[in-house]
Amino acid sequence: MEIKDKTIGGIVAEDFRTAAVFKKYGIDFCCKGNRSIEEVCAVKKKNPEDIYADLERVTQNATQNIDFKTWDLDLLSDYIEKTHHRYVEEKTIYLLQFLDKLRRVKGDRYPELIEVHELFKQSAEDLGAHMKKEELVLFPFIRNMVEAKRRGVELPKAHFGAVENPIEMMKHEHENEGDRFEKIAQLLNQYIPPADACNTHQVTYKMLQEFEENLHTHIHLENNILFPKAIELQKELQN
Q1: What is the C-alpha separation between 8 and 129, in angstroms, rounded?
Q2: What angle do helix axes 164-187 and 227-238 make, rounded to 10 degrees?
Q3: Which residue from 192, 189, 215 is spatially nearest to 202, judged by alpha carbons?
Q4: Contacts of 83 (CB under 8 A, 6+ apart)
Q5: Cβ-count burial of 151 within 10 angstroms (0-12 exposed, 13-18 middle, 19+ buried)?
Q6: Quick one: which of 8, 157, 207, 237 is 20 to 30 A from 91 by CA?
Q7: What is the pLDDT of residues 143-181, one digit of tens each?
Q8: 181-206 in b/e burial notation, b at 16+ Cβ within 10 A?
Q9: What does the alpha-carbon distance between residue 10 and residue 117 come to, in Å, rounded to a whole number?
Q10: Can you spell out the DSSP letters for the chain?
Q11: pLDDT category, 63, cuts 50, 70, 90?
Q12: Do residues 207 and 119 lie in contact, with contact meaning Cβ atoms separated by under 8 Å?
């Protein structure tokens, strides 16, 4: 299949090195990864040929990268939980402290810090609940499907029916977070701190940018690899 016929999420799923190209052009490859390059460029007024050229340069690089598409789904869900879920839990503690300090000390001069604090506080709460639903409901079911296939036994029925049901809920929540961080990035001038920013101010911006990048990777692994394969596996087991 030609790259022009693939979705952006599909391109990144095949070669994660391409994520850097889409980030360069401000293109969402996770929450809104179901669009083609041509579709996005028409909206963003960008030249698709520039993106195709950058993608070719990146994919010709011989650097070895992890091919998550080849992983078993139980291993991938474990990786997401132990890598990305733990990252969110650890970083939100520090970011909430830093943002609260900036809000109190500099909120009068930089009112955007007050709004960002509220946005991130809500994000931390929503992500915490979101990850628990994955850890307690969706991921265990995915692991059970993998085990059922390995052992050749019948898969027990889930109370939520088709796995698409919780997956659609997770994808909707992913999109909400993507929109929220797009707003945060806009408020913070794409994480470029003011010229007179103190160390805490600068570090907070860098941490927020890193948090968003990690979240994009996290969502990509689920939306574009884990979730579609889980849906396929359930259909395979039911047949």
Answers
A1: 28
A2: 180
A3: 192
A4: none
A5: exposed
A6: 8
A7: 999 999 999 998 878 889 999 999 999 999 999 999 999
A8: beebbebbeebebeeebeeebeebbe
A9: 34
A10: --GGGS-HHHHHHH-GGGHHHHHHTT--SSTTTTS-HHHHHHHHT--HHHHHHHHHHHHH-------GGGS-HHHHHHHIIIIIIHHHHHHHHHHHHHHHHHHHHHTTT-THHHHHHHHHHHHHHHHHHHHHHIIIIIHHHHHHHHHHHHHT-PPPPPTT-STHHHHHHHHHHHHHHHHHHHHHHHHTTTT---TT--HHHHHHHHHHHHHHHHHHHHHHIIIIIIHHHHHHHHHHHH-
A11: very low
A12: no
The alpha carbon of residue 19 and the mean position of all alpha carbons in its chain are separated, in whole angstroms, by 11
How many CB atoms lie under 10 A from the CB of residue 138? 23
Q: How far apart are CA 53 and CA 19, in angstroms?
A: 14
Report the length, in residues, of the chain. 239
User: Please, what is the Cα angle at 189 between 115 and 104, to 5 degrees?
Assistant: 35
Contact, 124 vs 131, CB < 8 A?
no
In whole angstroms, give the CA distance from residue 105 to residue 114: 10
